[in-house]
Fold:
Amino acid sequence: MLISFAEWSETEAYLAFSQLIVPRPVAWVLSDNGTSPGAQAGQPAMVRWNLAPFSYFNGVTSAPPMLMFSVGDGMAGRLKDTHRNLRRDPQCVVHIARSTQAQAVQDTAAELPWGVSEIDHAGLELTAWDWPLPRLAQAPVAMGCVATQFTPIGDTAQTLIFLRIERVWVQDEIASFDANGRLVIDIAAYDPLARVGRGGYASLGPVVRPR
Structure:
């Protein structure tokens, strides 16, 4: 089968990309909605925090440690909340979920009416840590980040957001140090969630270490 992307719409190209470029890690991004008139009127405190998943996501450099994720405002037809929030306040928390949290991740992708928190909607909890924004209590990894660059790409409203990692929290159960003092992550215990196409998620299979 030969596919010509030049003949396809953005939606058709996305459907192909999302099934061919797999598995993809998922950035579960917590950002600050800020103080709003609704919140001042007595909306739940959780409404302050926006939580959304992004699977066009990866690490890009180690010095300084940086991440990148892509926001498709064009397909959404508006500036997405995460993008808008980071333009105003660049601090955020990027989480990595476990495969068992696929439903919660999907629930936070829903378009909710104002006043309904993604965190409450998905049955999640927040906890304070050494960062201005809270982290998800259930996620095995949380990275306190600062957005440093917003780069428009493509023919529609698509933006690459680059984040510098300032803090990382890792569950004790999945982390240790080797004899040289280097971090070792137990991948089986970590069990990170992966994104595949057509609304699907996956877990990692056996780890292969070629010689």
